């Protein structure tokens, strides 16, 4: 028993896939008769393009930088657009980016296509938050942003496992074609259901730009960029966690992704409530909870049940903090709600870049796949440290009408 546990711990380092009892039976039947390929999307396109997994994370980083760059630039360029029309245009660009991703022939083309796919995301969530706030009414900014983010978390429960399933059956290229098809359906839904109203018209570019002169906006974004990166450092390597560390079959990857998504959805809903009723509780509890879960994953993740539970925990704790970050950004610059929503998503995708890069760096250093959790631990700790240092400045920026709210935190 001791020898087996020792062997499993050594498997936390990158190594060829080994046989595991759970890979027999029904899984072998599926593999033999339906030609299911190994691993998750990251591993699938890495193998197809002839690159290593750490190199493949460059495509994830490219997507993230697309969001970081596109969020402010597109939001400012379309400052006067009606938010309904902006959402439709952004969804069209997303469809184009995913079609190009499916057609890429090498890492350079794929990274460029992922960059294009990322360009509309930040502006989309910013405009979506404005539309959601219009629908739910004033004083519920946290709930409104949580509603928008629910689409992302539900996609993690259903979309990521389904994408992995499709990739294993039909190839990773068809997965991106499927994403493009779903985005086209999203375009039709927006066209049919988002209200046509002048209340969703934009404002002057100068008004949006003025918000970027506020130091508090950039400090809050720094907290988000550093603190939330752990969710991506871990998420990037879910496939290797399952197949290389815990020696389970690729059929278990969608299960692990679904656990991650369920945690994100619950954390997002709780975080929306906390953001509207307390000033900092969602962020502080979320960051501290994430540090505990990340340390557990890094040290005990060789046990499958611990790994799945920790994926759930990382998703839940990190998502608890995000609505609070959005509320504070909006309070710091109430004259530019669309840009603040976009900048929040830009910060989160900078987190994506930091998380994927740092996780890949630790793995490439032959520290093992679970070392990606330590990479996330370091950056979430830095985010919490920056928040604590700037705590009083954040506190002073909240309107006086929120004083009663602060006392209850």
Short description:
The chain has 409 residues and is mainly alpha-helical.
List keywords for this structure.
mainly alpha, 409 residues, single chain
By DSSP, the count of extended strands is: 0
> Could you say which overall geometry the principal axes of the C-alpha atoms support?
globular
How many angstroms does the end-to-end distance come to?
A: 48 Å
Helix percentage range: over 70%
Q: Which structural category do the helix and sheet elements fall into?
A: mainly alpha
Q: What is the tally of helical segments?
A: 19
Low-confidence stretches: 1-38, 397-409
Mean pLDDT: 80
What portion of the residues fall into strands of 2 or more residues? under 5%
Radius of gyration: 21 Å
Write the H/E string, N to C: HHHHHHHHHHHHHHHHHHH
Major β-sheet profile:
none
Can you describe this structure?
- By secondary structure, the protein is mainly α.
- 79% of the residues lie in helices and 0% in strands.
- It contains 19 helices and no strands.
- Helix 4 packs across helix 6 (107-136) and helix 7 runs antiparallel to helix 8.
- The longest helix has 30 residues, at 107-136.
- 54% of the residues are buried.
- The model is unreliable at 1-38 and 397-409 (pLDDT under 50).
């Amino acid at each position: 028993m001791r020898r087996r546990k020792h062997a499993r711990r050594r498997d936390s380092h990158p190594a060829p896939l080994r046989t595991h009892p759970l890979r027999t039976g029904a899984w072998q039947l599926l593999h033999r008769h339906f030609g299911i390929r190994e691993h998750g999307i990251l591993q699938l396109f890495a193998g197809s393009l002839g690159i290593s997994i750490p190199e493949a994370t460059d495509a994830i980083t490219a997507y993230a930088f697309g969001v970081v760059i596109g969020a402010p630039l597109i939001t400012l360029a379309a400052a006067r657009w009606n938010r309904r029309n902006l959402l439709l245009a952004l969804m069209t660009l997303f469809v184009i980016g995913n079609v190009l991703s499916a057609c890429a022939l090498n890492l350079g083309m794929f990274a460029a296509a992922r960059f294009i796919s990322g360009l509309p995301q930040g502006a989309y969530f910013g405009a979506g938050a404005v539309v959601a706030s219009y629908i739910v009414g004033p004083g519920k900014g946290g709930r409104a942003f949580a509603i928008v983010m629910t689409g992302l978390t539900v996609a993690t429960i259903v979309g990521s496992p389904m994408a992995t399933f499709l990739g294993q059956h039909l190839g990773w290229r068809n997965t991106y074609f499927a994403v493009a098809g779903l985005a086209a359906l999203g375009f039709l839904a927006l066209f049919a259901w988002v209200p046509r109203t002048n209340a969703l018209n934009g404002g002057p570019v100068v008004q949006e730009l003025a918000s970027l002169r506020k130091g508090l906006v950039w400090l809050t974004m720094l907290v988000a960029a550093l603190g939330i990166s752990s969710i991506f450092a871990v998420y990037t390597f879910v496939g290797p966690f399952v197949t290389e560390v815990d020696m389970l079959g690729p059929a278990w990857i969608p299960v692990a992704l679904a656990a991650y998504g369920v945690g994100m959805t619950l954390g997002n809903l709780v975080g929306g409530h906390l953001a509207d009723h307390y000033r900092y509780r969602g962020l502080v509890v979320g960051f501290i909870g994430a540090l505990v879960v990340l340390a557990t994953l890094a040290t005990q993740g060789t046990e499958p049940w611990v790994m799945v539970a920790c994926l759930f925990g990382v998703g839940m704790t990190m998502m608890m903090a995000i609505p609070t970050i959005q509320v504070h950004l909006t309070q710091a610059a109430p004259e530019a709600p669309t840009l603040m929503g976009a900048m929040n998503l830009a910060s989160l995708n900078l987190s994506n870049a930091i998380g994927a890069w740092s996780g890949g760096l630790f793995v490439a250093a032959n520290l093992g796949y679970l070392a990606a959790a330590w990479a996330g631990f370091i950056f979430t700790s830095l985010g919490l440290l920056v928040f604590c240092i700037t705590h009083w400045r954040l506190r002073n920026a909240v309107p006086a009408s929120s004083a009663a709210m602060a006392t209850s935190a």
